[in-house]
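Same chain as my last thread, 207 residues:
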Amino acid sequence: MDRKSEIELIHAALSGDRTAAAGLVRAHQASLYAFMLRRCGRPEVAEDVVQEAFVRALTNLHRFDTRFRFSTWLFTIAKRLHCNVVQKSSPTYDSDLVSFSACDASGPMASLSGDEERSRMRSDLDEALSRLPEVQRDIVVLFHQCDWPIAQLAEHFLMPSGTVKSHLHRGRRKLRVALEAVRAERRGPVSARVEGQTDRVDRGVDR
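reply #2:
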């Protein structure tokens, strides 16, 4: 939805037009639900947070500053609700939409079935993402999984586009490091030592 259409819907909703209010919900419901589901990993919690976020946003629509995007305001409300309601919940993210290699097909994962491998990949990525600083994690998730452009991220986080790009770059780099660490921890010290010895042998052969 472009900025002009969004503002028109907001003004119409403020005047009591229920169709306009419903249009705002339709425009943002799917992306907000996807984002919350990836944060908390529980559909019922995500649904409750999304529903409550829309109720609060529409109830307080007269307080909305039209200099910003409605999605920015809505996501901020939902994020605060999520923090209040599910502080101890483990986040779950959609590993399919984040562009990082999940496993080496020639490694120990190769013997697993497709479903088992997919589950392990998702679990590893969930854990790796949870180790990122919150701002970098949210920027990575919103950029890669919700298709938010840099300009919208800058508006949402109230920071320059260059700073957003820096967080995105650092977040992706930290995610790769965290993902490698998670896999190493899962393999355990014995497996890691064997793998390290194999690497040394390989390097000796290469020489």
